[in-house]
Amino acid sequence: MTIVSAFLLPGNPLPTLHPDNAPWRPLVAACNEVGAAIRATKPDVLLIYSTQWYAVLDQLWQARAEIAGVHVDEQWHDHGDLPFRLRTDTTLAAECVARANAAGIKSKGVDYDGFPIDTGTIVATGFVDPEAKIPTLIAACNLYHDFEKTEGLGAIARDAVLAQGKRAVVLAVGGLSSNYIDHDIDLSDDHIAKSDDDAANRQFLAAITDADGAGLRMAALDYAASTGTDMGMKHIAWILGTCRNIRGADVKAYGPTYGAGAAVIEFKLA
């Protein structure tokens, strides 16, 4: 089967917790639009990589069949809680673990009650599949993996999807520029923390509009090298690894999340 579609969604919880705040309305509207579009395609699985699920030693893959609870974000806890429910495609997770180990990337599945699901995954799936009808494959962001190895992880997930004959939607969950505003603000005054960040974000978004895979890779690496970005843009590496037929990008929304940059992007697939 195939990769149906691919998206970048922000993982910051503030737009979810304050959807009517003016600076965040475009992000919320775009996330809701993407969620409806994904549900309409009825994929077999969501392939998720969030820059907020950190792994340090092994590469981790979520392997718990069902996970539910109420999440309290470690940074933005005073803005509210995040109820969540997720289902995992355990067969696909097991195959990704096996394929990654065979490729020399030491991996394991995590399967225990109460495992701390990251905020980004909860925020993104809240927009895309709030009723947890679509199984997920969730890969951690290993802090020691570079852009190239992360792209390799995406390729492993893609190959596993194809081997199992499934239809998948790819979700990269993360931000753009990573500088936050370091003092209290009125939320209605949120803005990109630095003018240089805003310029770099806009340059990156313009560069990828008509970029193929090679162009997207070059734009992401140049952007990450010139600006403080979320995890070196490894969430874009996940997109590149899972999707080998990128033909541009549709930037649906761009805006601040307490000074950091965020965007909602659909990647065009040939």
Automatic annotation (TrEMBL):
SUPFAM superfamilies: LigB-like
Annotated GO MF terms: ferrous iron binding; oxidoreductase activity, acting on single donors with incorporation of molecular oxygen, incorporation of two atoms of oxygen
A Pfam family recorded for this sequence: LigB
Domain spans labelled Extradiol ring-cleavage dioxygenase class III enzyme subunit B: 23-183
Protein name: tRNA U-34 5-methylaminomethyl-2-thiouridine biosynthesis protein
Organism the protein comes from: Gimibacter soli
